[in-house]
Amino acid sequence: MDTISEQPADAGVWGALRAGVAAVLALHDSREEALERFRLLHNTASLRAGWLEKRLRFQENLLPLIETRMDAVAGSQGVKARAVIATAFACLDAASMTWVANGGTGEIMDLYDECLAAVRG
Prior knowledge:
This protein is mainly α. Helices cover 77% and strands 0% of the residues.
């Protein structure tokens, strides 16, 4: 969350979320470690369930930061911020699943960008 809150205002909501995703991915010591963790996450039901629960809490914590970047207010505008956050996480899921399926070929952030471009049209 610090990475997102530290982004300049002109980064916009998508840029701030992208920086957050990149910061989290950079926590892995190596590509091999990242690949193994994502493989376990996507192929182990209990780990996947735990990740989803943790992610939902994290998304709630991100909500005020994203609402501020979107000039949204709680209530009806909050739904837009929730949708943006959920979309960013869905793109990370799609990118990481594709990356694992391809044996870690390519860059996961390139796949994330590709997924985001697809949903943003």
